Amino acid sequence: MKMNNIIEISDLTVSFKGEGYLLTAVDNLSLSVIHGETLAIIGESGSGKSVLGLAILRLLPDTAAISGSIIFQTQDILTLSEGMMEKIRGGKIAWIPQNPKLGFNPSMKIWKQVSEPIVLHTDSSWSEAKKQAIRLLRQYSIVPPEKWAEEYPVAYSGGMLQRAMLAMGTSTIPSVLIADEPTKGIDAINKKDVIEMFNTQKERGITQIIITHDLDFASEVADRIAVMYCGQIVELTSVERFFTTPLHPYSVGLVNSLPQRGLSPIPGTSPAMHEKQAGCRFKSRCSLCSRVCSEEIPLFPVGYDNVRCIQYHNRNWAW
């Protein structure tokens, strides 16, 4: 494992059995996450982004078939006992679910839910943890925190729940924070708050993996972009180069679909996960498709980046 990497994923495949078919949500994926970076994993719904996040935390259902390795701080997460994973999950790696309403127990006060990871993963008492929870609520602009700490989730707005979820997720000062669609269902004002919160975590040195289809949000918080399509990473690049010089035809389509680029839609639809195609998964939607695209295509290095497109085979570009 390279010294500057905090997570190294190698040849990860996650499949689910359907009725008469095998659904592959993550397909032989390899990815390294650099210590202290904010990595945005982007792509359409159904591309495998959330399954990848759940795999890192070992939160997939028992019906999932998993192969490969996920190395976190020298340990392979996929081989650890559940007892060891409980020490990592919520302590060293925090998870912010897609819907904060589902992430809270409706019958438990907010202070207790924010305090729970502190009690579980540190030597703090409940009294000490409550004081820390109140400090965290204030830090995330839930004020007055003493009042809101005593409320139940039903009293919170969507934006407040998102901030409370971040308070809970960062209560143990995790090494890695994984957030699944953190801007989903929130308005523009709350979105600005969420951007500020994630950038604050970045300044504190917390490694962040953000799963999103919100490209504007990714542009504000990410250092690097990993583009997923049909269970594979098709491009890995810096956030600056993704928005200025995207390489993969799918990445080009995503950027061109932005309002400021003319809202040009990508033609066609993604194939279903159980309809695995040979070769490039994007070929049926790509205007540059050729016969060679029916062959399996690896990620090619292009300068500092990687792209899964035959156009870039044997191109040694330097940025």
CATH topology of the largest domain: Rossmann fold
Task: Give the % helix.
Answer: 25-40%
Separation of the first and last Cα atoms: 26 Å
Structural class: alpha/beta
At the fourth level of CATH, the homologous superfamily of the largest domain is: P-loop containing nucleotide triphosphate hydrolases
Main CATH class of the largest domain: Alpha Beta
For the record, the count of structural domains works out to 2
CATH architecture of the largest domain: 3-Layer(aba) Sandwich
Could you give a short account of the major beta sheet? 8 strands, mixed
Radius of gyration: 20 Å
Trace the largest sheet across and list its strands. 6-7-8-3-9-10-12-11
Uncertain regions spanning at least 5 consecutive residues: none
Task: Give the overall shape.
Answer: globular
What is the overall number of helices? 11
Q: Strand tally, please?
A: 12
- Beta strand %: 15-25%
The ordered string of helix (H) and strand (E) elements is EEEHEEHEHHHHHEHEHEEHHEE
Question: Kindly state the mean pLDDT as a whole number?
Answer: 92
